[in-house]
């Protein structure tokens, strides 16, 4: 089997590239085609805003940036804020809420004991840091 003759092939033109989108889905209100991105390359600023819920975002761009880049920066920034808020929340572990610091029972006075461990008046609950490891 041989190759086809070059004379039977027709010349192909350049491939047509689809333009990158400039309208996206909003992360907060989930409306499609609600977020528009505008690039000001002279000022080096990309602006994004949702016409439904009013969310706005602005970031720095360079001469290679496109609207997709501004949208992805917005997604990354929203994920980072959600991650920070999740780390600050107490988590459930074994049916108990684990907070960053142990909390005292309400309406109890902290009394120093002779053995240098702290006990609360009333029920004698030990609030020594060594017990919480």
TrEMBL record:
Please give the family membership noted in the entry. Answer: Belongs to the ELOF1 family.
Tell whether Nucleus is among the UniProt keywords.
yes
Region Disordered, as annotated, extends over: 85-133
Q: What is this protein called?
A: Transcription elongation factor 1 homolog
Q: Which InterPro entries match?
A: Elf1, T_Elf1_sf
What does the UniProt keyword field contain?
A: Metal-binding, Nucleus, Transcription, Transcription regulation, Zinc, Zinc-finger
The record's function comment reads: Transcription elongation factor implicated in the maintenance of proper chromatin structure in actively transcribed regions.
Oxidoreductase keyword on record: no
Q: Which Pfam families match?
A: Zn_ribbon_Elf1
Q: Where in the cell is it found?
A: Nucleus
SUPFAM superfamilies hit by this protein: Zinc beta-ribbon
């Amino acid at each position: 089997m041989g190759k086809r003759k070059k004379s039977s092939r027709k010349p192909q033109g350049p491939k047509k590239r689809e333009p990158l989108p400039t309208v996206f889905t909003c992360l907060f209100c989930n409306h499609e085609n609600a977020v528009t991105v505008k690039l000001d390359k002279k000022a080096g600023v990309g602006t994004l805003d949702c016409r439904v819920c009013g969310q706005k975002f602005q970031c720095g761009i360079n001469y290679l940036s496109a609207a997709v880049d501004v949208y992805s920066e917005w997604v990354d920034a929203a994920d980072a804020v959600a991650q920070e808020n999740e780390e600050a929340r107490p988590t459930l572990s074994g049916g108990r809420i684990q907070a960053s610091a142990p909390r005292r029972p309400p309406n109890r006075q902290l009394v120093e004991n002779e053995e240098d461990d702290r006990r609360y008046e009333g029920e004698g609950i030990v609030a020594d840091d060594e017990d919480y490891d």
